[in-house]
Design brief:
heterodimer; A: 314 residues; mainly alpha; two-stranded antiparallel ribbon; 14 helices; 75% helix; globular; B: 308 residues; ABC transporter involved in vitamin B12 uptake, BtuC; two-stranded antiparallel sheet
Chain lengths: 314, 308
């Protein structure tokens, strides 16, 4: 079988399994998996920038938050219905990621990380500052009546699962499609050797900006969908730990692999879920995993799999 | 109170802020300068200093000055030792790769913070200052064409706050003397300039790195011990100093110690004065955005020299 065939079979197979799982999973894990798929989409977006382009952002919560608040505020204050509200979230994501991309890409390396961190922190503080609109730390709930998209009630568990699966499929397929296109291959080349790509005549800044905008927009749509599916918009989703989460998922699953973000999210989500029975300090697990991954498995789970067994994995 | 005395009060508070900030930021700057890595866990070493100070003061009992004096020596040493251990077990093994170090220190941040939450708990706890005399300050005004002195109500500081400023100056001079006048400072500067060449000349670069990481963390812990009688020890207290120290180090020019101190005084004073007139959140937003833009448009910092 050709590599393309295997790739299509594997990724299509995963989506089919996820589709089938909802009929057999107990209610608790059913709900978890819906949440995991939305968070995994966020991580897929993050991976396009970090894994494929090699740009480590510490401020992706800003994009997630832009989508979430773009959606939430337009429902809450402008009386939008879900479909235009999602569109508002997407537009907010494109706008914010374009601005941040234009500014932050003037820096490289460590400075890029710190600049993205600072912009995200400023975004978080802005949410806290406009407390009359955003209700600050407390956040606001999106009522069930406001969550009906084209007659489908998104607060119903099985509709919610479908919506999450749809989002995840779209972002997975975009990611898969992208890395097999010349644009994606150029991004990988930039990651490997920026100078050489520049010598070959490619416009590095334009490619990087494209990566930031695609990555930020996927993150923003995930944020908007998250708010809509789970009915809550809060400042904690724009705070620093929420920027670290996708980094953690991607590192654990495998940077620069299409499936890595999903594997990492599942693994991390259940690790924290299981440990919360033992201790309330669940971020301890996140810390230990971060250190362990950097020390022992810099390639991540899927990365190790690719190195040892399936060299054709995208 | 009128504007003049009000400003003096804000300046004094700002000077205390600036002293503590200068110590924290110099620690961060030293690590960045010599090792070329960014230590995201720096704020947690600060927090550990405050928490250990509380434990020591709590165990010693007796006169507050006794526990405080012991804490001032022991807490930075313990925190420095923890940092050295972290350097040798984690940072050395990722070969000080800048990006992997950032990820590893983020992990370290959560480990330290959450272990403190489990051991020390979520409460904020005070440490009694060793001495705390109230000092009323005079102010001048023109009355009937002559300058007269009076003591406005509320315009006062404490002897302890002045001692913090003094202690910070002494420690900073000490750091400068160490870097400029001692053999170990020479080794650090040699490592900073060219790691490979230093290694070739037989300088134990890895031990210098461990030492620098320890000293950086120890300075943060020392700053926290100084501030803990004014603020309280809490497991989340590391976030703000980390952000401010970053701001200071960036404004001052990454890795430049004199620039760092000047920037700390600038930021500490203006933070004290700005937060008198604006809401603290707005002040933070503006400061954060300003620093991000400085990094974007003037990456060598306001005082740093441009590197080729």
């Amino acid at each position: 079988m050709t590599a393309t065939g295997k790739i299509l079979l594997l990724h299509g197979g995963l989506l089919c399994v996820l589709f089938a799982l909802q009929f057999v999973l107990p209610a608790y894990h059913h709900g978890n998996l819906a949440r995991i798929m939305v968070l995994a989409s966020y991580a897929v977006g993050y991976n396009i920038l970090f894994g494929y382009t090699g740009l480590l952002s510490l401020g992706h919560a800003l994009f997630f938050g832009a989508g979430m608040y773009g959606m939430g505020l337009s429902i809450q204050h402008l009386g939008f219905s879900p479909a235009p509200a999602l569109l508002a979230g997407l537009i907010a994501g494109v706008a914010v990621s374009t601005i941040i991309g234009l500014l932050a890409l003037r820096t490289v390396g460590v400075a890029f990380m710190i600049v993205t961190l600072m912009f995200a922190q400023a975004g978080y503080l802005t949410v806290l500052y406009f407390v009359d609109w955003t209700r600050g730390d407390e956040g606001f709930v999106i009522q069930q009546a406001q969550r009906i998209l084209w007659g489908i009630d998104l607060s119903d568990p099985s509709n919610r699962y479908f919506a999450a699966l749809l989002l995840f499929s779209i972002s997975l397929l975009i990611s898969l499609w992208l890395v097999r296109r010349p644009f994606g291959k150029t991004l990988v080349a930039i990651r490997e050797n920026e100078e050489r790509v520049r010598m070959l005549g490619y416009d590095i800044q334009a490619h990087k900006l494209g990566a930031v905008v695609i990555s930020g927009t996927i993150a923003a749509v995930s944020g908007a969908v998250y708010g809509l599916l789970f009915g809550y918009v809060g400042a904690s989703f724009t705070a620093v730990p929420h920027s670290i989460l996708p980094l953690l998922y991607v590192l654990l699953g495998g940077t620069g692999t299409v499936l890595g973000p999903f594997v990492g999210t599942v693994f991390m989500f259940y690790l924290i879920d299981l440990s919360s029975g033992i201790t309330t300090a669940h971020m301890l697990i996140a810390g230990v995993v971060l250190v362990a991954v950097t020390l022992f498995a810099p390639q991540g789970l899927v990365g190790e799999l690719r190195r040892r067994l399936w060299r054709w994995l995208p | 109170m009128e504007l003049g005395p009000y400003l003096l009060l804000a300046t004094l508070e700002g000077a205390v802020m600036a002293s503590v900030l200068a110590l924290t930021a110099v620690g961060l700057s030293l690590v960045f300068g010599v090792m070329r890595v960014v230590n995201i866990a720096h704020g947690e070493f600060y927090m550990l200093g405050a928490v250990f100070a509380w434990y020591i003061a709590h165990w010693m009992g007796g006169h507050p000055a006794l526990g405080f004096a012991v804490a001032l020596v022991v807490a930075p040493l313990v925190v420095g030792a923890i940092a050295v251990a972290a350097d040798m077990t984690i940072l050395k093994r990722v070969s000080y790769d800048p990006e992997r170090t950032i990820v590893a220190t983020i992990g370290l941040l959560y480990i330290i913070q959450q272990l403190t939450l489990m051991g020390y708990g979520p409460e904020a706890r005070p440490v009694a200052p060793p001495f705390n005399t109230r000092l009323a300050l005079p102010w001048f005004e023109f009355k009937d064409g002559a300058l007269s002195m009076y003591w406005p109500w509320g315009l006062s500081t404490t002897s302890y706050k002045l001692a913090v400023i003094g202690a910070a100056i002494v420690v900073l001079l000490g750091v400068w003397a160490m870097m400029a006048r001692t053999r170990i400072g020479l080794l650090m500067r040699a490592t900073q300039q060219d790691r490979d060449m230093a290694q070739a000349f037989g300088i134990p670069v890895e031990r210098v790195y461990a030492l620098v990481f320890g000293i950086g963390a120890g300075l943060a812990a020392l700053a926290a011990v100084l501030i803990v009688p004014i603020q309280q020890a809490h497991y989340l207290m590391g976030a703000d100093p980390l952000l401010l120290a970053f701001i200071v180090v960036i404004i001052g020019g990454l890795g430049s110690l004199p620039g760092t101190v000047v920037a700390a005084i600038l930021i500490g004073l203006s933070d004290g004065i700005i937060s008198v007139f604006f809401s603290p959140t707005l002040a933070k937003i503006l400061a954060t955005l300003l620093v991000a833009l400085v990094l974007v448009f003037r990456p060598q910092g306001l005082f740093g020299a441009r590197r080729s």
